[in-house]
Amino acid sequence: MTSPTPSSAAPAPTVRLRVPTEEDAYAWHRVFDHPDVMEFHGGRTAELSEYEELTARQRRHDAELGFCLWTVLDEHARVLGFTGAQPWPYEWGPKGATEIGWRLGRDAWGRGYATAAARTTLERVRAAGVSEVVAMVAAGNERSIAVTRRLGMELGETFTTPTGRTGYCFRLEL
Known about the structure:
With 174 residues, this protein is of the alpha+beta class. It has 5 helices and 7 strands. Residues 15-174 form the N-acetyltransferase domain.
């Protein structure tokens, strides 16, 4: 009997990134409607209007900056979630930084999609002239911390969010 191939040796899955469409607001709302997905994002399902605003903002970012939070599609053109980059949007934390991030629907977890999509994000933001990115990850979000490590990111600072939670700021020079 042969032993299973370790997941680290498995080929990267095929992903495609696109600028989010108006319809993607509905897809994101649907694929993120799971308590595990939202555990580190407020703990509740977001309203559709939040995704409508978010996808519209990302289209503006893409037009103005050349990058955004892109919709992640698998090899069958199924919406898995998003990954990409945007200016850090808050008054606390790494102000002025370009943040990379990812959020996938629960069905897409554990298959390498987040890391594959984040690597494509790094290529695209580097091509857009960004020299450093950060990833803000909630303490306890071991899956996202693992993605930052696979990308070669290093822990920079630790922040306390306005809600009193601890967040880690990982950094990577491009």
